[in-house]
Design brief:
about 725 residues, alpha/beta, Amino acid/polyamine transporter I, Rossmann fold, 2 domains, 10-stranded mixed β-sheet, 26 helices
């Protein structure tokens, strides 16, 4: 974050911060200048089809953006923040820099549109502006909008309330005017009176109407609760826009106020002819919608520049805030660039290019949501779940519209963004020669490992890489199966056998032993690495393997043991746990009973001692377990024990708050033990029907391992399957 922040800006809620700017940007020029033209050329059924296809693309993109926003608290930068935190800084910069330029040029476009609207009204009154009149008015609008936004985002957003009222009144005037003139049968076939190019041409003209929904997302850093406000405000704006874009064509289709031939002419005349009071309310609504869009651009553009500056992709001084908490420097630079764009005169050609750049943004937003879903990071737990193929469909739809609008501009936009990406990446994968298949996979694997090594490992990216210690793999296949469930086949599971002996004295065929282990795994359809390690001592051998297993950041972070045949072996496991905990390796000890053969599972119990007492890892592993097909319908129950009935409500609320904060679907249950029953009895009575029960492990004092082993045996008796967990990793206490 920038160190130059000197003020705190007020924070906004869903209505003012997201819904208002989004819906007013959606209800813009196309609604007033092209909606009648669309109806006059396509007829009612195909007009509705155009609206539905267009809105479905934006609806999917809004869903994808909402999914991402419910998983992280989005900071300054809106869409740029989303993408850079999902796909990385290079992708974020490749989109963020063009996004900023788009928003800046949009300010110029909307200012020109409003100036031309004033010119049109004066022309209707018999007056005219001089040649420099329209650019001069546009420049004045840019200056006023920049000054208001630079001084206070709150003032700029509050000004949109009367604008929204003006837009609503213009729509109401249209409906009332239609009702007062009688009705006719709608035109059901396409005539293409003034659009001989056909259906897709009309579609391309209309589509920009529905692309304004990201205006509210751009205010992400100024929201009280972005994870709540962005999905609610964005989705409500998209649905509201869809409703109005269906109502208005229906009104034009059934009213006697304007003929179909007149509808097919571009301009605002269809509105002014139909609406109650003629042009009075229509021009007010149209101007208000354009002005609101201009405010949206000058509010969100500087915030993208601020975020780029904070991430080191733009000069640091651009993130400086005013005493009111506004990105003042970025705002004024945006205003200056928008003023400079006025000198270009007609911006129609550039406007199409800007629309395509916005569409590339929608492609990447959908792609980000799809990748997050496919990669299945444990931390990706959005409260709005969008299937990956739905997001991909949104990306494909946006690409289709880009090609439809202008294939050349689409190609140029993609080239520009790829060039920015390559510049930001600064590194390239070097070619390797040899066998094309082996060389490719070797180079890709090496490159991936090196890149992973360069990345700082954060709790967000943590997943269990498990070393499973086994004596006879066939007898402990349930444990290996459970390990693969914990990492959803996305992490690394290494099945290791410690062969007690000395390599120098015994003839041990390690390769044959490993091959035999792989055959067993293959027979059970389990993917895992196999290895055999020879050591004169089981304890030292297990500790050595725990230290060295893996490569780079793919080193083992968790060791896993099955239930031994005798108490002494359990004592040894506890000794190993004590040592490996000092090097950040977590420990799992399992007592499983025919787990893999049971089919679908119904219940996972967690006995809760607190987030810091192994609870974070138990909860995460239970969540990961349930993401597997056979466990998908299982409910997770967090159980806790209190002796005093008066504390039951307090502990239940605490558990419910924990469940809500980590976004994992679970139930909470507090058991009052006021009868003097032992902990083991309480656990057995309440969890004997659970398919699997999670409990925490403590590290016993040296010499007291056998005493603790007896306690574990007692705790697991009477239960179906038990998983004891000791969390010792960098993940500790940081469940996101």
């Amino acid at each position: 974050m920038s160190t130059s922040k000197v003020g705190t800006a007020p924070k906004f809620g869903t209505f003012l911060g997201v819904f208002t700017p989004s819906v007013l940007t959606i209800l813009g020029l196309v609604l007033y200048l092209r909606m009648g033209w669309v109806v006059g050329n396509l007829g009612l059924p195909q007009t509705i089809l155009v609206v539905l296809i267009s809105s479905s693309i934006t609806f999917i993109t809004a869903l994808s953006a909402s999914a991402i926003s419910t998983n992280i608290r989005i900071g300054v930068g809106g869409e740029y923040y989303m993408i850079s935190h999902s796909l990385g800084l290079e992708f974020g910069g490749a989109i963020g820099i063009p996004l900023y330029l788009c928003r800046t040029l949009s300010l110029t476009f909307y200012s020109f549109g409003l100036a031309e609207g004033v010119s049109l009204m004066l022309a209707n009154m018999g007056e005219s502006l001089p040649a420099f009149g329209v650019p001069a008015i546009a420049a004045a609008i840019i200056i006023i909008a920049t000054a208001l936004s630079g001084k206070s985002a709150s003032l700029a957003l509050k000004l949109q309330i009367p604008i929204m009222i003006a837009v609503a009144l213009s729509i109401a005037a249209l409906i009332l005017g239609a009702l007062s003139t009688g009705f006719r049968a709608p035109e059901m076939v396409s005539t293409y009176r003034t659009a001989p190019q056909g259906f897709w041409y009309v579609f391309a003209i209309f589509f920009p109407a529905v692309t304004g929904f990201t205006a509210g997302i751009g205010m992400s850093g100024d929201l009280k609760n972005s994870s709540k406000s962005i999905p609610k405000g964005t989705m409500l704006a998209v649905i509201t826009g869809l409703a109005i874009y269906i109502i208005v064509p229906v009104v034009f289709s059934v009213t006697n106020a304007v003929g179909f031939s007149d509808l097919a002419q571009p301009g605002v005349s269809a509105w002014t002819t139909t609406a109650l009071l003629g042009s009075v309310l229509v021009f007010a609504g149209m101007w208000g919608a354009i002005l609101s869009s201009a405010f949206g651009s000058v509010l969100t553009g500087p915030r993208v520049l601020q975020a780029l500056s904070e991430d080191g992709l733009a000069p640091r001084f651009l993130s400086r805030l005013s005493s009111h908490g506004q990105p003042a420097v970025a705002t004024w630079i945006t205003g200056v660039l928008a003023l400079a764009a006025v000198l270009l005169g007609s911006l129609n050609a550039v406007a199409q290019f800007v629309t395509i750049l916005f569409l590339t943004l929608y492609v990447i937003i959908n792609f980000s949501a799809a990748v997050e879903k496919l990669v299945r990071d444990p931390s990706y737990r959005p409260t709005i779940n969008v299937p990956w193929f739905v997001s991909i469909l949104g990306s494909v739809g946006a690409i289709f519209v880009m090609m439809l609008l202008n294939p050349l501009a689409c190609l140029i936009a993609i080239i520009v963004e790829v060039m920015i990406y390559l510049i930001l990446r600064r590194r390239a994968l070097r070619k390797r020669w040899g066998d094309v298949r082996a060389g490719f996979w070797f180079a890709l694997t090496r490159y991936a490992l090196i890149k992973l090594e360069d990345q700082k490992q954060e709790p967000r990216n943590w997943r269990p890489n498990i070393t499973v210690f086994t004596e006879e793999i066939e007898e402990e296949i349930d444990m290996v199966y459970l390990a693969t469930c914990f990492n959803q086949k996305m992490g690394v599971v290494s099945v290791c056998r410690i062969y007690e002996g000395r390599l120098s004295r015994e003839n041990i065929d390690i390769e044959e032993m490993e091959s035999s282990m792989r055959k067993v795994l293959s027979a059970h359809d389990i993917s895992a690495f196999c290895e055999v390690n020879v050591s004169p001592d089981f304890i030292q051998g297990a500790i050595d393997v725990a230290q060295i297993n893996g490569v780079g950041h793919l080193r083992s972070n968790t060791v896993m043991f099955g239930w031994p045949n005798d108490d002494i072996k359990l004592d040894l496991m506890l000794m190993i746990m004590r040592t490996v905990s000092t090097i950040g390796r977590s420990t799992i000890i399992t007592n499983l009973k025919d787990l893999k053969a049971r089919g679908f599972y119904r219940q996972i119990d967690i006995w809760w001692g607190g987030m810091e007492n192994n609870g974070d890892l138990m909860l995460l592993l239970a969540h990961l377990l349930r993401m597997n097909p056979m466990w998908r319908e299982a409910k997770i129950v967090l159980r806790s024990i209190v002796r005093n009935p008066a504390r039951k409500a307090e502990v239940e609320q605490s558990l419910s708050d924990t469940i809500s904060s980590v976004r994992i679907k679970a139930e909470a249950e507090v058991i009052v033990n006021d009868t003097g029953a032992s902990i083991a009895e309480v656990i057995t009575n309440n969890s004997q029907q659970a398919d699997i029960t999670f409990m925490g492990l403590m590290i016993p004092e040296s010499g007291r391992e056998h005493e603790y082993s007896k306690k574990l045996i007692e705790l697991s008796e009477g239960l179906q399957s038990v998983v004891f967990i000791r969390n010792a990793s960098e993940f500790s206490g940081k469940l996101l």
